[in-house]
Amino acid sequence: MLKYFYILIFFYSITLFSQIDKNTIPVKKKLEELTKLQSKSYKLGNFNDFKIYTDSILTIAKANQFKEYEIDANVRLGMYYATLGTFDKGITYYLSALEITKNISEAYKKETVILNNLGNLYNQIGSYDKAEKSFKTALEYIEDYGGPLEYRMAVYTGLSDVATAKKNFKTALEFLQQAKEIGEKLKRDDMVINTLNEMAENYLELKQYQNALKHSEKAEKLYTHEQSVERRTLSLYLLGASLVGLKRYNDAIVPLQLSQGIALTNDFLKIEMDAHKQLARAFEKAGNLEKANMEQKGYIHTREKYLNSLSKAKRLEVEKELSKSEEQLVQESKSKWFLIFISIGIITILVVLLFIYKRKRKQLELETYQLNEARILLTNENEALKIKILKYAKTKTTNSLTSTHKEKSKKTSLTVEEQNKYIEQIADYMEKEKPYLDSEMKQSTLAEELNMSVHLFSEVLNVCFEKNFSSFINIYRVDMAKQLIKNSKYAHYKILAIGYEAGFPSKTSFNRVFKKLVGLTPSEYRKQELPLSNVSSSV
């Protein structure tokens, strides 16, 4: 894990320029310029330019015997390849940097940094014994020669990762407690949040759910918008997982869904996968087997994506004693079954798509008509939705008077007076009780709350409002979402959170319905309605 990787690089780099021979000023200036460009490209996320500048620094440093720059370039290339997941190359560059430090004075300063970063990389690929050796050697240097508190904190965090991987959870907690104390001393909330999250993870492994809940709640309270969104996502997940462990299943659902939504938005596959798993358990224990099944399917799908993202790291640790022929046979066998499963999957998908296409085709005309009517209702924002709904429904009722009795009898057995009564009743209830905010609201439930039969309720919706239940309730949800988006109090809310607040059951349904009725996605609508400064941290 690379939690403090970049902190170490920073402390290492600030000592670099003071140790250059003043007789090589032109070369030094060139290296300084390249280093500035290198840092800028990294901050901008332009890793291709970062690699080019770092290669140039390494070439010039080697040619002119600038060992400090040569070490730094090797470390940064190690960081670059570790970020890409090419861990074998990352290790090679770190080891090269260690080798060069043998030829310079006060080598322990550089070796401490390199060993920390190398230990983090070994942890990532599962070489825990090598990681432990690297961290312990770095700790020996710190004990003997001193160094910034960040160095010591990085070592404790790395050793805790090793202990966690080896199932020594109590040992991991001891290291994390020391790391947390350093973070608090430095007044670094980001570091404290990381250690609190890791402590919660270890308490979960020990099944000490109350301790896990306490630490994840502390981490969540420390979160601000200046902190990494991944930290908060993990804190929310751990909070939810702790509640599941405590059998508080209904309480666990909201933090887990928030964690899952943020993870999905930001491609945090590990957290998304774990959130699916915990939600499946929470819904199952809460008696909602349909949602539990959906979450289990989501877990299996995300788990496959997550494992695929780790495939390069796995290759690095393939056992050396396997012969090439055995490896080839295994690969051929996997490929054969993979192709079989893919073929079955494609056929299944095609059959399902054909079925969906035929079904959708029959509904297309009705949905198009309802969509146009719904858009009209949502356009004039200066008039309350209830008033617009009433005008719309009563206009339809009035227009029906021009039809012959025979034509009306085919549509409804309700008189105009009865229609107007039910129109008023439904519109009043929707405005006062806001049942659409319940993402699980069903037609039968709402009909019961209105003291109407399902058949009568459906007839009123179809005849008076010319809507089916889904289209009718989604108009209210979109109207509420628009109000929330324009409300400055909700400017810091994620788009997914706005959707949940408005009653939508998922991000997919929110984006789809909102775009269909408004003509813009929720994110596009927010950018249109709010100043850029209010949007940048929440879209």
Q: What would the principal axes of the Cα set say about the shape?
A: elongated
| Rg calculated over all Cα atoms | 30 Å
Enumerate how many helices there are, as a single number.
Answer: 27
Cα distance spanning the termini = 28 Å
Residues in helix, %: over 70%
Order of helices and strands: HHHHHHHHHHHHHHHHHHHHHHHHHHH
Structural class: mainly alpha
Overall pLDDT score: 82
Percent in strands: under 5%
Main beta sheet strand tally, sense and closure: none
Number of strands: 0
Structural commentary:
This protein has helices at residues 5-13, 25-43, 47-63, 67-84, 87-101, 107-125, 128-145, 149-165, 169-186, 189-205, 209-222, 229-245, 249-266, 269-285, 289-309, 311-316, 324-379, 385-399, 405-411, 416-433, 443-449, 454-465, 469-486, 495-501, 507-518, 522-529, 532-535. It has 539 residues and is an all-alpha fold. The longest helix is centred in the middle third of the chain and has 56 residues, at 324-379. The radius of gyration is 30 Å and the shape is elongated. The two termini are 28 Å apart. Mean pLDDT is 82; it is low at 1-23, 311-330 and 401-410.
Map the helices and strands:
Layout: H1 5-13, H2 25-43, H3 47-63, H4 67-84, H5 87-101, H6 107-125, H7 128-145, H8 149-165, H9 169-186, H10 189-205, H11 209-222, H12 229-245, H13 249-266, H14 269-285, H15 289-309, H16 311-316, H17 324-379, H18 385-399, H19 405-411, H20 416-433, H21 443-449, H22 454-465, H23 469-486, H24 495-501, H25 507-518, H26 522-529, H27 532-535
Features:
539 residues; mainly alpha; 27 helices; 79% helix; elongated; disordered N terminus
